[in-house]
Amino acid sequence: MALLTDPAAVAGLVVREVHTGARDGMPTRIAIARRDYATDQADLWDALTTAERIPRWFLPVTGELKVGGSYQLEGNAHGVVEECDAPRRFTVTWEMGPQISWVQVTLTPDADHTTLELRHEAVIDPGMWTQYGPGAVGVGWDLVLMSLGLHLASGEAVDPEEGLTFPTTPEGITFVRVAANGWADAAIADGDDPTVARTAAEQTITFYTVEPEEGSQS
Fold it and tell me: Which residue range or ranges hold the Activator of Hsp90 ATPase homologue 1/2-like C-terminal domain (predicted)?
């Protein structure tokens, strides 16, 4: 990102936590990302919930952004708005293929900033967790929160093509490495084996930063 002069510092703006939970009798893991933004609660809420503004830092979205309404992010997740307490909190299902998880965003205003807390809860596939850990979803959210910060700071849209290629640039690799290791630290704090968590972080870094070879088959 042209405006990202210190990727390690920007990745360090996010406070990361991992917790163990349960939903409908199934064990879950909850990835929590928390970051402060130098704007008021109303502006941050508008950036997060206005269909015309969301693509400036994330993806085009269609649907009804109200309780009970369905949404679709272009080329990404879809789901249902389960809760909306403007301008404080919203909760949505996060559905991709057969997988469903839950995302809750809470905004807490302070004197000169607003704290955004994002909680992503998912029923865990043990094999996937061992392979990638919380960074599988966490690093993706780190990149989204980075783009949101760039948009809020400039008022301009973030170039989506630049966003897609960013993780494979030298600055992006630094950002992803700091973020993935931060998620490993959070998983270890929640009781994960340190060696497994560190190995998962390295695999997450590779997933985000290594471009697939041209002509390779998935």
Answer: 41-148
